[in-house]
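Checklist before submission:
- one chain only
- standard amino acids only
- sequence pasted in full

Submission:
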Amino acid sequence: MTSDSTLTTYYDTPFRTTDDVIKKTSDEILDQPFIKEVLEGMNSAVVILDNNRQIVAYNQLAKKLFEIYGTEIVYGKRIGEALNCIHSDVMPAGCGTSQFCQECGAAIAIKKHNESLNKEINECRITSTKDSVEFALDLKVSASTLNVNSNRFMLFTVQDISNEKRRHALERIFFHDILNTAGAIKGISEVLQESESMDEILEFKDLLADSSNQLVQEIQSQRELMQAENGQLKVNLHFVKINWILESVFKIYSKHDSAKGKMLKYQYLESDETVLTDLVLLTRSLGNLMKNALEATTDTKREVNYWAEVKDGKVLFHVKNYSVMPESIQLQMFQRSFSTKGERGRGIGTYSVKLLVQQYLKGKVYFISNDVAKTIFTIELPMLLNNTTE
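Returned file contents:
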């Protein structure tokens, strides 16, 4: 890592081409008639990058894509900057130089191509922002060589595959998770029909109610996620006791499949207070964190802890497990299609938490994961001072 702060990098080279050189290079490239034909003849967004990964030419599809995310001036920007990636300005040298870029599919494709000159194709997850609203992008990118006037440039294509990723997620949820729950309900119903023991009937009656409730919850959570992404989700605010929230979420997830054989513990606030929030959305968000913590706990002797605290006019809900996430996972947390389980169609749990909490509950969600603290996810919500129950 270089010592000059403006040249500090955790991944790719930090050096940048000056604006006047970008303009001169762009004019020379676009002066070639075949370049425009190549760019506009392709059915995806295409840019030409110089040796510092900066855009010197692009087609109309790329222009339209960048404009969606608020970028009008494209020349001289890197891909993440043109797409308003939330990590593109983390470092002074810009896109490609932060720790997060180590796990970015676009950054990896560009770096590998520059090192090997082979064509690189990769998938890329980018969280973009416009007017303080975040958008999850799933892209398919490719990097290949383009020679112009004996100078080597990179032809970089960008294809939006977000809809395909969403379809895979829904397929997995409905054909795996929900089908499994429906299958359990069917099995319990068959047992109830054949059983003659009243004790057994009462036992399976409760199981049937729990499984039916879980099925409804799974379907509702997907509906809410789709509405949230489309900006159509309605928020219903009510004053709710914090200890009641803690207890109700515990009751739901202590019976969840992922909690079997594990110790789930929660701690009341010593002095209960109320928060103005949407109970359904908050419960869903806390439940996702709870389920993830339970699934990450493979040692049945380890606990999953769950508690809240109030400070500085905010309520903080914490969910802790005693595993530690690798850095590569931490850098990709909250991305829509990223999954720690490595299965296609997974990876919307923490993404949906961030979407609901930040855009609809006006709060924050963050985590810490290290050998000392282990892994703690936190949902932080604003609360009214001196508020009272309804």
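Reviewer check: Residues 311 and 383 are 10 Å apart (CA to CA).
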